[in-house]
Automatic annotation (TrEMBL):
<dbReference type="Pfam" id="PF04811">
    <property type="entry name" value="Sec23_trunk"/>
</dbReference>
<dbReference type="GO" id="GO:0006886">
    <property type="term" value="P:intracellular protein transport"/>
</dbReference>
<dbReference type="InterPro" id="IPR036174">
    <property type="entry name" value="Znf_Sec23_Sec24_sf"/>
</dbReference>
<dbReference type="GO" id="GO:0000149">
    <property type="term" value="F:SNARE binding"/>
</dbReference>
<keyword id="KW-0813">Transport</keyword>
<dbReference type="InterPro" id="IPR036465">
    <property type="entry name" value="vWFA_dom_sf"/>
</dbReference>
<feature type="compositionally biased region" description="Polar residues">
    <location>
        <begin position="105"/>
        <end position="124"/>
    </location>
</feature>
<comment type="similarity">
    <text>Belongs to the SEC23/SEC24 family. SEC24 subfamily.</text>
</comment>
<dbReference type="InterPro" id="IPR007123">
    <property type="entry name" value="Gelsolin-like_dom"/>
</dbReference>
<feature type="domain" description="Sec23/Sec24 helical">
    <location>
        <begin position="723"/>
        <end position="832"/>
    </location>
</feature>
<feature type="compositionally biased region" description="Polar residues">
    <location>
        <begin position="85"/>
        <end position="95"/>
    </location>
</feature>
<keyword id="KW-0653">Protein transport</keyword>
<feature type="region of interest" description="Disordered">
    <location>
        <begin position="85"/>
        <end position="191"/>
    </location>
</feature>
<feature type="compositionally biased region" description="Low complexity">
    <location>
        <begin position="137"/>
        <end position="174"/>
    </location>
</feature>
<protein>
    <recommendedName>
        <fullName>Protein transport protein SEC24</fullName>
    </recommendedName>
</protein>
<dbReference type="Pfam" id="PF04810">
    <property type="entry name" value="zf-Sec23_Sec24"/>
</dbReference>
<dbReference type="Pfam" id="PF08033">
    <property type="entry name" value="Sec23_BS"/>
</dbReference>
Length: 1019
């Protein structure tokens, strides 16, 4: 799944997608002309800089003050042991880790033997329909942090016996799956397809009939989505795929009702992408729409009267068919005779290219970009400015600027305590203009001088490199760089530059803004003394960045911000308001060290620029009568105008979540029908998202995604059809917004998450009516059986983890907290579930298929097949062993852990440590087979994660705190005694949830008893 070919990981930058040609006939995506299909990769020209590492800036004065912590190759063993006991890690001599080849539990199948890949489980997941018994988890002394609770013999994985088994049985037995007689707690690891198996093909409408009620494949699993008449989960996911018929049923079910949109997601290999409908030549008309509700044509429209009229499936209105869309119908089945040529009547997703001026607010322009780079001491001496400038240069030299062949332009501003603007019009001799006034900044050069086409912008880049000696900071002209940072003023200037045309701004800073507009005080840093103090620090110090972001969104400008810093505090809570309010994204790299993090900064910048797809966008969601749209969350501009959402710039990873509300009985059967078959969809709800936008070639387009979930009056249907990923995403986005807005202290947000989880499970418990023998058991709905562990993971994540008491274990800085909260409120469902329950895989031994293109057929891997990832293991220190090496991906960071007896040869093959830090050797020559496959696994993860900011190596006993503060807190199934109540082990958390459910049951009974007693008075 190489969505972002990135030169730094061994690939090459492709051309940005070109839009405009008519889509290939459905299913023939290999033609590759569809807009969302990437062009074949093109070798970048002149990429020498691309692979250059920044020179050590040690010679500069600033660098000497800010040397990154040096890697300590071998820590003192005794101090590690005492440190472990301090943090509650059990003494390895008293209770050693399991031997490397000794599987956890009493499994008869040793893990990792090549003849026995994961896959021959005698205990397929989920087979026994047994609930969790409360007693199963009772009576156990809580283990200390880092020491997982040992799982007692007890019930097998549970689900209600009333529930059908929703997931296919997984013939796999990953490391850590229980041995004979061990209970299995529900884990995401159990719903992964077996390593190396074929990807599931998911048809959005099965066999031309109405969409079913089951949830789509999990977002973090590989699948091939096929649009067979309804939008695929690649673009839209509903929290429940059977919509409650009315508000009282919705209120009872308590599962949030909403929609998660990733409308510009790139297709995975094997997927067709969105097909074009070109209306620019068809008489200048627009798409076929309902004259009453303005809904767009979709497979649910039904034509009558020989095609002269059609019924809208959103509102039921009978429309006259406009002449430009007139086509006779087949009397036999009622379908239009042109059905084979009209994508909009056949598929759930289409992209109209419109020439009709009704869809133009202003004349569209090709994309314009502004890059603002910190060249103050915090940017220069850390090597950040070098990395940032080289990243932009690599994109320009590879002709990979989005819209670059269609007139896209880029302007560059550098800033220290003043602003620097570059006039790129001279023949290879750019001129610089300085603006020292940073309190009321202005642009001293006109747009024709400031914005340059890619080829001329390269000369500007070269000038900047020379002016600031970026290739060799030891040769800094005029002494060390100024320490003043005028970030706020630079963004104000960028806003002025783009005020009339809109566009995208990328800001790269190494420190806190210290001069001019948007100057921030260092109000935080160090330990956070109280929850109220943390709440105050999560609020912005000044409304400057929030206001500026909103103003920019109104001007159709969006900002992405990269903060890569060595400073202990940069007030990310204030700074990240800027991307948040303008529909952009923010990235925080702490303890930035150019020697290893240059790769991360390149990846972030290249992906952010390359991933731009839509400008000047307006989003509108419509739904069947009886449903209305509620609160929007995610990447878009604030404030909003009515129900139309402004999204200045959208990219492949842009996410929106939308609450759906009932405003009466949902009306289906509105005379609508289907262009798929005469009967399908007639009793289905219609939900349609339309995005009006300008593409990278400067044309107006409308992307329409439509889906047709059934409605239901049966409460259990909502549980059977619940989409865990969408439910978790909705809950997390709302919680993150509450915390980031500073309206709630974190403990209140945590409590709300726990209570909501318990209430959903209570409703299921109450209405699923388990047999009496199970009346005291914890019963989890099949589709939401992972909800507790996901919420536990979120509670223990850097977004919501309480500050540990008296110890440093798992401390979260305010900056990290703010970055995690912004991530949660703008991340895709697959990123959020990975953040909640990170994917941990064993690298030191690989399954025979791992690290290779999955599903080889006849000895040849199918074209474009993604690299198979190893089966993941439960997040418990139970599985750590001296000889093992693990990789953990939580969507934000990638952590590599290895034990003290891990093969030194393997470590040397994976890491280059010649500069004193761990630097990944991805795809370098001379690696052995295992290292090459590990490289392929890491590369695949890096490429598929848009928010991944840093790779952190945390060897056992590392002295820099990486193991204790970064790695161990991700092992969320363990107990963390430093977190007091919130440090529950997984089993303890299930008990907490169970107790709440039983309390709610008791309250209901008490209420009934009370009512019965009251009734006596009336008799
Ligand atoms: Zn309508």
């Amino acid at each position: 799944m190489s969505r972002y070919p990135d030169p730094n990981y061994g690939g090459s930058i492709p051309n940005p997608p070109q839009q405009g040609s008519m889509g290939a006939p459905y299913g023939q995506n290999a033609v590759g002309t569809d807009m969302t299909m990437a062009q074949p990769p093109m070798q970048p020209q002149g990429t020498s800089l691309l692979h250059q590492r920044p020179l050590p800036p040690g010679a500069s004065a600033g660098a000497q003050q800010q040397q990154p912590p040096m890697y300590q190759p071998q820590a003192d063993v005794n101090s590690i042991a005492s440190g472990m006991s301090n943090i509650g890690l059990q003494d390895s001599s008293a209770q050693p880790y399991p031997a490397p080849d000794q599987p956890y539990g009493a499994s008869t199948q040793p893990y990792g033997t090549s003849t026995q890949p994961y896959g021959s489980s005698t205990q397929p997941y989920g087979a026994p329909a047994q609930p969790y018994g409360a007693s199963d988890y009772g009576g156990q002394q809580p283990a200390a942090y880092g020491a997982p609770a040992t799982y007692q013999q007890g019930q097998a994985p549970g689900m209600s016996s009333l529930e059908p088994q929703m997931y296919p049985q997984q013939p796999q037995e990953p490391l850590g799956s229980p041995g004979v007689g061990e209970p299995a707690l529900p884990r995401p690891t159990a719903i992964e397809p077996a390593c190396g198996s074929k990807r599931e093909v998911y048809n959005s409408v099965a066999d031309g009939s109405a969409p079913g009620v089951g949830p789509p494949p999990a977002s973090r699993n590989d699948f091939i989505g096929v649009d067979t008449g309804s939008c695929t989960p690649r673009f839209m996911r509903l929290t429940v795929n059977s919509i409650p018929a009315d508000s009282s049923m919705q209120a009872t079910s308590s599962i949030p009702l909403g929609l998660i949109l990733t409308p510009f997601a790139d297709p995975d290999p094997g997927e067709a992408g969105v097909l074009d409908v070109d209306l620019t030549t068809a008489g200048g008309g627009g798409p076929l729409r309902c004259s009453s509700c303005n809904g767009y044509a979709n497979p649910g429209f039904r034509f009558v009267d020989s095609g002269n009229k059609f019924h809208c499936n959103l509102c039921g209105h009978e429309n006259d068919t406009p002449s430009e869309h007139m086509c006779a119908t087949n009397p036999a089945n009622g379908l239009r005779l042109d059905i084979d040529y009209r994508h909009e009547f056949r598929y759930g997703s289409v992209d109209y290219v419109v020439g009709n001026k009704d869809y133009f607010a202003t004349d569209p322009t090709p994309p314009h970009f502004v890059v603002c780079v910190d060249v103050s001491a915090s940017g220069i001496s850390t090597g950040l400015a070098t990395v940032a400038v080289q990243s932009v240069q690599s994109i320009l030299e590879a002709n990979a600027l989005p819209g670059g062949s269609s007139g896209a332009k880029i302007g560059i501003i550098t800033f220290d305590q003043s602003l620097h603007f570059y006039d790129g019009r001279g023949d290879g001799q750019a001129r610089v203009q300085y603006v020292p006034d940073t309190s009321d900044p202005f642009i001293p050069i006109g747009p024709e001088a400031f914005f340059q086409p890619p080829e001329r912008a390269i000369s500007v880049i070269e000038m900047i490199s020379n002016a600031f000696s970026l290739m060799d900071p030891s040769q800094l002209k005029g002494g060390p760089p100024p320490s003043g940072n005028a970030l706020g003023a630079a963004v104000v200037a960028a806003k002025q530059a783009l005020a009339d045309i809109g566009g995208k701004v990328f800001v790269v800073t190494g420190g806190i803004p210290s001069v001019g507009s948007g100057k921030l005080e260092r109000r935080g840093g160090g330990s956070v003394s109280s929850e109220e103090r943390e709440k105050a620090l999560l609020k912005d110090e000044t409304p400057f960045y929030d206001d500026l972001g909103s103003q920019m969104a109104e001007l159709q400008i969006s900002v992405d911000m990269v903060i890569a810093t060595q400073q202990p505090y940069v007030d990310a809570a204030s700074l990240l308001r800027l991307p948040r309010a303008s529909g952009g994204r923010g990235f925080l790299l702490t303890n930035f060290d150019y020697r290893k993090d240059d790769v991360s900064v390149r990846k972030i910048l290249v992906n952010a620029i390359w991933g731009v797809r839509a400008l000047d966008a307006m989003v509108k969601v419509r739904a069947s009568k009886g449903l209305e749209t509620g609160e929007y969350m995610g990447s878009f501009g604030r404030p909003q105008r009515r129900n139309d959402v402004i999204a200045p710039v959208m990219g492949v990873d842009s996410v929106m979540a939308l609450e759906l509300k009932h405003d009466g009985q949902i009306q289906t059967n509105l005379g609508g029908g289907s262009m798929i078959s005469a009967s399908a969809f007639s009793n289905n709800v219609c939900i349609q998202c339309a995005i009006l936008y300008t593409d990278l070639a400067g044309r107006r387009r409308i992307r329409v995604h439509t889906m047709f979930p059934p409605k239901t009056t049966v409460l259990q249907d909502t549980f059977r059809s619940a989409d865990l990923d969408a439910v978790v995403a909705m809950m997390c986005m709302r919680a993150a917004n509450a915390a980031f807005s500073g309206s709630r202290v974190l403990s209140k947000v945590r409590e709300a998450l726990i209570e909501k989880t318990a209430h959903i499970l209570f409703v299921y418990r109450k209405f699923c009516n388990p047999p009496k023998s199970q009346s005291t058991k914890l019963v989890l709905p099949e589709t939401l059986k992972l909800l507790p562990v996901m919420i536990l993971g979120i509670l223990k994540s850097s977004a919501f983890r309480p500050q540990p008491s008296g110890q440093n274990l798992g401390v979260v800085s305010t900056d990290e907290r703010a970055a995690a909260l912004l991530f949660l409120s703008t991340a895709r469902p697959q990123d959020i579930t990975t953040f909640a329950y990170p994917r941990m895989v064993l690298l030191s031994q690989l399954d025979e298929f791992a690290g290779l293109p999955r599903a080889p057929q006849d000895g040849f891997p199918p074209e474009g097949e993604p690299i198979a990832l190893p089966a993941s293991v439960p997040l418990s220190s139970e599985f750590l062993a001296d000889e093992r090496m693990f990789l953990v991906d939580n969507g934000l960071r990638l952590l590599l852990w290895y034990g003290k007896a891990c093969s030194p040869e393997l470590i040397q093959e994976i890491f280059d440590m010649s500069t004193g830090v761990y630097r990944l050797r991805l795809g370098e020559e001379g690696q052995g087979e295992l290292a090459m496959r590990i490289s392929a696994i890491i590369t695949r993860i890096l490429e598929s994660k848009s928010n991944l900011t840093q790779v952190i190596v945390a060897p056992a006993g590392s002295s820099d705190g990486a193991e204790q503060n970064q790695y161990l807190p991700l092992l969320i199934e363990d107990k963390n005694i430093a977190l007091a109540q919130s440090g529950w082990s997984y089993k303890e958390f299930l008990k907490v949830a169970h107790r709440r459910i039983m309390d709610k049951m008791a309250q209901e009974r008490a209420q009934k008893d009370f009512q019965a007693w009251e009734m006596l008075g009336y008799q």
